[in-house]
Amino acid sequence: MKASVLITGSTGMLGQAAVSLLGNRGLGLSHEALDIADADAVSQAFTRFQPQVVFNCAASTNVDLCQTDHTYADSGNVTGPANLAMAARASGALMVHVSTDFVFDGEKGAPYTEHDEPRPLNYYGASKLEGERRVLSACPAALVVRTSWSYGPGGVNFPGRVIHWATEGRRLRAAQDQIGSPTYTPFLARGILQLLEAGAVGVVHLAGAGQASRFEVAEATLQSAGRKGEVERAHAIDFPARAPRPRNTALDCSLAASLGVSLPPWREGINAYVGTRQDKPSDPAVSAPHQTPTSTP
Ligand SMILES: NC(=O)c1ccc[n+]([C@@H]2O[C@H](COP(=O)([O-])OP(=O)(O)OC[C@H]3O[C@@H](n4cnc5c(N)ncnc54)[C@H](OP(=O)(O)O)[C@@H]3O)[C@@H](O)[C@H]2O)c1
């Protein structure tokens, strides 16, 4: 069976968005169906499905676990992407790989461009950076899209937790000094495919337009959901985590814009996400990989 786009990590947030966007042009493989760290399995998948494009949505995304378990981090973020890139190059398929704003240390004080020097603060960011390098070295025509603070249906994420906690009537606190570019995964999946169609190669930043603090995201989410409740202003230091987080990793997406691709303003993503959750306000909230906690019981 041939697949025009093979989507790895298909049950993750971005993977689900890609699967639903591509319909019968895509073939999604979950972690269980294809472990990208297994080189033989990757090679067999390419032989079997002969994809024209591989869209890598798989990654080891638990930032705190990456800090202590480097085997976990490297399997999804370094070895896996390298395996896919080598198979893509050998078969002539295009490769799209997804990376992160956490390759930066967050100290620039302005949105990061593709020309800024990465300097990861934690092992997750370091492993993702190494993954980018391995992908581009095995497959120089690959597209590597760095995004920021993603959330969407079918995953545990910061806006989803805010809604959940508000539903439970819990006290909400969010850091006003932690800043990123919140990105809705269905918008991201669409933008990535547009970049591919535009022939983009190399590293390109793509995220929800603008920038926001965790506090602003929490407030916008509550407002959009029509929920009562107040968010208290807090600081990143109030939420200690195993892996240090960068302070400000908003992304400058003007390169993507110059190729005709930009995502809607971040608040539109929040509104769209809240709209998908109207009928399930009490999704279980478990640990969110990319976010520091924002609520105290
Ligand atoms: N979420 C964010 O805030 C954020 C921010 C910036 C960049 N990104 C990047 O965006 C991309 C998509 O992430 P996401 O937000 O969709 O995360 P996600 O919801 O955690 O999805 C990641 C998926 O990858 C799968 N996976 C992990 N290791 C794998 C392996 N060795 N082989 C195959 N599949 C594997 C996971 O499966 P299991 O759960 O079954 O292990 C999961 O389905 C990643 O590259 C991530 O680094 C995310």
* End-to-end CA span: 51 Å
Q: Give a short account of the largest sheet.
A: 6 strands, parallel
Q: How many domains make up the 3D coordinates?
A: 2
CATH-wise, what's the superfamily of the largest domain?
A: NAD(P)-binding Rossmann-like Domain
- The rounded Rg comes to 18 Å
What is the CATH architecture descriptor of the largest domain?
A: 3-Layer(aba) Sandwich
Shape: globular
> Roughly what is the average pLDDT, rounded to an integer?
92
Order of helices and strands: EHEHEHHEHEEHEEEHEEHEHHE
Polypeptide structure, described:
This protein is an alpha/beta fold and about 300 residues long. The chain has 2 domains: about 5-150 and about 180-205, Rossmann fold (3-Layer(aba) Sandwich), CATH 3.40.50.720; about 155-180 and about 210-250 and about 265-280, Alpha-Beta Complex (UDP-galactose 4-epimerase, domain 1). The protein contains 10 helices and 13 strands. It has helices spanning about 15-20, 40-50, 65-70, 70-90, 125-140, 160-165, 185-195, 215-225, 255-260, 265-275; strands at about 5-10, 25-30, 55, 95-100, 145, 150, 170-175, 180, 185, 200-205, 210-215, 230-235, 295. It has a 6-stranded parallel sheet, sandwiched between helices. It has a 3-stranded mixed sheet with strand order 12-7-13, covered by helices on one side. The longest helix has 22 residues, at about 70-90. Mean pLDDT is about 90; it is low at about 280-295. The structure holds NADP nicotinamide-adenine-dinucleotide phosphate. NADP nicotinamide-adenine-dinucleotide phosphate binds near residues 11, 13, 60, 98 and 100.
